[in-house]
Amino acid sequence: MAAKPKLSMYWASSCGGCEVSLVNINEKILDVAANFDFYFCPCLLDTKKKDIEALKDGEIAITFFNGAIRTEENEEMAHLMRKKSAVLIAFGSCSYEGCIPGLSNLHTKAAHFDSIYLNNPTVDNPLGIVPKPETTVPEGKLTIPAFYEKVKTLSQVVDVDYSIPGCPPEPKQVWNVIEAVIQGKTLPPKGSLLGAGNSTVCQECERKKEDKKITRIYRTYEIIPDVETCLLEQGLLCMGIATSDGCGALCPKVNMPCTGCYGPPVGTLDQGAKMVAALGSIIDIGEKKGLSEDELARRADLIIDSMPDYSGTFYKYSLAGSILGGRKA
Ligand code: SF4
Ligand code: SF4
Ligand code: SF4
Predict the structure, then answer these.
(1) Which atom of ligand 3 is nearest to 167's Cα?
(2) Ligand 2 pocket, Cβ-based, cut-off 6 angstroms
């Protein structure tokens, strides 16, 4: 019997939720086992790095790589998995666009170390010790992977064949991708998004959409929104308009605004910029006739100032992979 193709799933700077989304395909996991040799997955299997190094280049048919590139080790594993995999897929928002780890690009590495290891009320560190790639001790030299200044996406360090968006990707979409491979279907052109559509969450959302005009922005705890009307029209910052479809509009379905985890829709370079542009056209500052420039600006600022957290709202998932990338030095 011919050997089954090898499948792997690696986690870099990750929360583990992406592995859960694979397991959440439920009984279909048996089809995965029947069709693939599930060879490497540090969360579930004990295969070692040296076992991967011993493989021929391209011997792993598919690698799902989740997690962002935060450390030297993450990048080293990205290069190894690229080399050993015929198809490398950025799996989930962290790998595809940086996701929550990417928000740390708003601060420097020094600022992170300061708040984590030094000036933190729950830390007792009188010697001011912070992690260093190399430490000399009487017994010799100790090394740990270097912590990078910025989080990078997988495609910023290696060549990526496809990306599956989502935090985490919806199990149904994960299965669609695996099933297509099992059935030998031709995959879309390299660079495509898999497990997503060509539109936006708004297109999947069944809420009533009318004239979008908002006079103020609410945080989710401030109002109980109507269950049928578009959340954005009710003043909740719903990112559906600037987010790729694929999840089935899960969050609006349970009366919560979309926070954008499927990333920018196909053809959109920057998710945050798209959302800001959309807001610019729907913010309503009232009757403008006869008002001075200053008064117009003051009214617009009043609405804009009611937004709680610009980067955490517009770039919650996409900062590392966005045009901004993070704080400029
Ligand atoms: S994409 Fe979301 S679920 Fe997956 S590793 Fe990142 S934070 Fe976790
Ligand atoms: S903005 Fe949100 S609530 Fe409104 S239609 Fe789009 S996804 Fe639905
Ligand atoms: S509605 Fe938005 S935040 Fe919620 S799962 Fe879908 S893409 Fe992600």
Answers:
(1) 8
(2) 201-202, 205, 207, 209, 230-232, 238, 240-241, 249, 252, 258
Q: Write out residues in the chain with pLDDT < 50, as ranges.
A: none
Which ligand gives the minimal distance to the CA of 259?
3
* Ligand 3 center from residue 100 Cα (angstroms): 14
Give SS3 for 273: helix
Contact call for residues 94 and 14 (beta carbons, < 8 A)? yes
| pLDDT computed for residue 51 by the predictor | 97
CA 8/CA 83 separation, integer angstroms? 13
Whether the CB-CB separation of 244 and 200 falls below 8 Å is answered with yes
Q: Evaluate whether 254 touches 225 at the Cβ level (below 8 Å).
A: no
Burial code (b: 16+ CB inside 10 Å, e: under 16) for 241-275 equals bbbbbbbebbbbeeeebbbbbbbbbeebebbbbbb
Considering Cα of 120, then 123, then 125, then 129, what sign does the dihedral take? negative
At 2 the pLDDT is 78
- The pLDDT of residue 326: 85
Quote the ligand 2 centre to 241 CA distance (angstroms): 7
**d(C-alpha 130, C-alpha 109), whole Å:** 11
**Element housing 194 (H / E):** none
Q: What global pTM score does this model have?
A: 0.93
DSSP alpha helix (H) spans, 123-248: 171-182, 201-204
Both structure tokens of 127: 């010697």
Let me know how long the chain is.
329
Note the pLDDT of residue 1: 67
Residue 147 CA, ligand 1 centroid: distance in Å = 19
Q: Residue 188 Cα, ligand 2 centroid: separation in angstroms?
A: 28
Q: Which of 9, 13, 15 to mutate to test the pocket of ligand 1 (most atoms within 8 A of CB)?
A: 15
Which atom from ligand 2 is nearest to the alpha carbon of 257?
2
Question: Would you state the pLDDT for residue 76?
Answer: 98
Ligand 1 pocket mutation, candidates 14, 65, 96, criterion most atoms within 8 A of CB:
14
